[in-house]
Write a structure and sequence with these properties.
mainly alpha, 6 helices
Length: about 140
């Protein structure tokens, strides 16, 4: 590749990263995901930790995608890391659905307003069992 081609590829990659990053920040800002997550978990004083966790996660994810690192950690170390990651993603998804009023709208549409807790528990247990099924049958050898 010539120097011009390399500079062009770098420019296109950087522009794409800026576009995706801006969209991610706009998504989190417009919907108010992080403040709502701190309200639900009653940890409003730690909002800066949440914000830095999102930034660090985005940077680590980008680096992980580019560098493709391999970690050979024992399962006893991976279990708490996976659990913490799952809890964070679950809470982020819960905050998103809360902000968008997904559950009340869905319950009203299918006519079960008085059973909204049952609907939420069905979704939670479906996610748990689906994740376990995937892990047991597709991940574990």
């Amino acid at each position: 590749m010539t120097t011009i081609n390399i500079i062009f590829v770098i420019f296109i990659g950087f522009a794409g990263g800026i576009a995706v990053g801006s969209g991610f920040v706009a998504f989190l800002t417009v919907l108010g995901i992080i403040p709502r997550l701190t309200q639900l978990s009653k940890t409003m004083k730690m909002i800066h930790w949440y914000e830095w966790a999102v930034v660090a996660g985005a940077v680590a994810g980008g680096l992980g995608y580019l560098l493709n690192p391999m970690f050979h950690l024992p399962p006893l170390v991976m279990i708490p890391l996976g659990t913490a990651g799952g809890i964070f993603i679950g809470m982020l998804a819960a905050a998103l659905t809360e902000v968008l009023n997904v559950f009340p709208i869905l319950a009203k549409r299918i006519g079960i307003q008085e059973k909204i807790i049952t609907l939420m528990m069905a979704l939670v247990f479906g996610k748990i069992f689906g994740s376990l099924y995937q892990w047991i049958f597709f991940i574990v050898d």
